Amino acid sequence: MRAQPQFPNEQTDSGEFKRQSDAFRHWVTEDGRSGYPAAAGRYHLYVSLACPWAHRTIIVRALKGLTGVIGMTVVDPIRDDQGWAFRNGPGHSLDTTNGFHFLSEAYRATDPDYRGRVTVPALWDTVTKRIVTNSDDDLMRIFNSEFNDFTASSLDLYPAALRPQIDEMNDFLYERVNDGVYRAGFATSQQVYERAARSVFVALDQLNTRLGDRRYLFGAQFVESDWRLFVTLLRFDAVYHGHFKCNLRRIVDYPHLYGYLRDLYQVTGIAETVDFDHIKRHYYVTHDDINPTRIVPIGPMLDLLSPHGRSGLS
């Protein structure tokens, strides 16, 4: 008997998970040439603390000092048959920007004919009353470069000299790690699962070796790619190892990856973006085809504040 797919419209006949494309890809620009000029208080970010794709944008918003410039509302981590919902609860709230009850209302306000899956993150424009973009890739770049007039931060996560290498690394991380764990977890055939899961660990082995003699993926300073990897490593032992059956090894079993994970977690402002309660409740309760009991495991115990010993690497 073939297992039921998590998202039937994104599953191939052979049992592979093929993630849908982002629906909205407009751009906020510093000079306004896109029709969406950067401005303080104009844009609002809808996110889930559980979702790694949304987490990336929360991190860049924090690192760039934009928390007072771009508003943010967190959805309930439990996504039911009505989708992502705005409810009061620990770490999440009602939508005070638009009064939406469900994120799908923002999608329909933007495109009444939209029929795809409703995803986070989504950047809402309070002037045009529509979603500008639901692409985490674009949002990371927008937050990095287009709001510099509204922040004292000079941090550049996408430096010009490294852009070709960063783009190449991002492609590798997406295919083999970020989406790789989903391809294993959402597979509906044994062969597809095994191929995806083994590919994840080949990639993790390579990354562990790479990080053996350098602090971050490209040297002494973290860039965009590091945070793309971080959000998956952070969730790995708590969720992907058991729930998605990526269980050949844990991140704590990789000395360089585990030190690297702790190093990034200890960057100022990052721990405040992490909510393991949201992360675990989302995956273990929402994916009831994978975890029909909806029991949320109490572990693992991770000491992400322990010394990472990586400060001397360059």
UniProtKB/TrEMBL annotation:
The active site is at residues 51, 182. Coiled coil: none annotated. SUPFAM superfamilies: GST C-terminal domain-like, Thioredoxin-like. This is Putative Glutathione S-transferase. One of its GO terms (molecular function) is glutathione transferase activity. The gene is yqjG. Its EC number is 2.5.1.18. The keyword Transferase applies. It comes from Nitrospira defluvii. Pfam families: GST_C_2 (PF13410), GST_N_2 (PF13409). Keywords: Transferase. PANTHER family: GLUTATHIONE S-TRANSFERASE OMEGA-LIKE 1-RELATED, GLUTATHIONYL-HYDROQUINONE REDUCTASE. Residues 50-136 form the GST N-terminal domain. CDD domains: GST_C_Omega_like. Glutathione binds at residues 84, 117-120. One of its GO terms (cellular component) is cytoplasm. The keyword Transferase applies. InterPro entries: Glutathione-S-Trfase_C_sf (IPR036282), Glutathione_S-Trfase (IPR040079), Glutathione_S-Trfase_N (IPR004045), GST_Omega-like_C (IPR047047), GST_Omega/GSH (IPR016639), Thioredoxin-like_sf (IPR036249). The record marks 240, 283 as: Lowers pKa of active site Cys. It comes from the Bacteria.
